[in-house]
Amino acid sequence: MEIGLNHYLVLSTILFAIGLVGVMRRKNLLLLFFATEILLNAVNVAFAAISHYYGDLTGQMFAFFVIAIAASEVAVGLGLLIVWYKRHGSIDLDALTTMKG
Amino acid sequence: MFEAVAFYLFAFLTIAMFFIVVTTSQALFALSALAAGMIFISAFFFILGADFLGAVQIIVYTGAVMALYAFGMMFFDTTRDVKEKQGNKYIIVGLSTLAAVLVVVIFAMPMVSGNIVALYPGIDGVGNTQEIGLVLFTKYLIPFELAAIMLLVAMVAGIVLAGKKMDLSITLMNEAEIEEEKNKKVLS
């Protein structure tokens, strides 16, 4: 049984779907961040698989840049989250609606 | 054969871990499961021959990002159960699957049309890490430097946001104000 590119793409789809379910059903901002990490990882798997099966290094390069962006996103996002928690004592998404739109 | 066993084993483990992340009501369980899932993801990179990417995945994601989350969680009240949005489950799952399939179709389009060409093919006789270095520091040098600047900006932003008394600037204050600030008791 040979593992082909389609196997990896299907796995990537499943992981991406799990991440999207997390984004849609979570109310806690910290767990929303976790779900976005899952999304980024799912795309990284697809990039690495395509890079391997087409003998091209571009996919791995993009995976590196995705990792770099994820790291900086976490640093800034967590800082903002800490500031918000100190002010309001809650990181629920529903508590963020100050404009009552 | 060995590759197939490894693929299915790690696929099952990764999906199980990420499923725990999005379903559990305990933030600490979610954190641990996410860290485990990140390590299992790196197994795919090793299977695919992207050794350096796998090592970076373990070091950056599991070492740096998860540690940062663990430190950040000390600021929050994570012991109580996490409240969930009350929505229609079927709509959520259906929309997610649809969006994920769309992403894969976007990925697969160049392959279906058959006009995909290896832009930077692998170099014979050198390891994966050396290939990465050769391509990264010739063809992708400017994106690499931009990523470095972005990481620096993110580091400064993280320090300013999370640090104490970052709204004060000693260079803009005179001596008396600095003395007064020193004598104040540190609150919080």
Count of helices of chain A?
3
Beta-strand content of chain B:
under 5%
What is the overall silhouette of chain A?
elongated
Structural class of chain B: mainly alpha
Detail the poorly predicted runs of chain B. none
Major β-sheet profile of chain A: none
Give the overall form of chain B: extended
> What is the average of the pLDDT values of chain B?
83
* Beginning-to-end CA distance, first to last residue of chain B: 59 Å
Strand and helix order of chain A:
HHH
Give a short account of the largest sheet of chain B: none
- Would you identify the CATH architecture of chain A? Orthogonal Bundle
- Oligomer state of the chains in this structure: heterodimer
Separation, N- and C-terminal Cα atoms of chain A: 55 Å
SSE topology string of chain B: HHHHHHH
* Helix percent band of chain B: 55-70%
Number of strands of chain B: 0
Describe the structure using short key phrases.
heterodimer, A: 101 residues, mainly alpha, Helix Hairpins, 3 helices, B: 188 residues, 7 helices, 70% helix, extended
Condensed summary:
Chain A has helices at 5-25, 29-53, 58-88. Chain A is mostly helical and 101 residues long.
What does this protein look like?
The complex is a heterodimer of chains A (101) and B (188). Chain A has three helices and no strands. The relative contact order of chain A is 0.13. Chain A has one domain (9-90): Helix Hairpins (Orthogonal Bundle), CATH 1.10.287. Chain A is mainly α. The longest helix of chain A has 31 residues, at 58-88. Chain B has a domain at 140-188. Chain B has 188 residues and is an all-alpha fold. The termini of chain B are far apart. Chain B has helices at 2-23, 27-47, 51-73, 89-113, 128-136, 141-162, 175-183. Chain B contains seven helices and no strands.
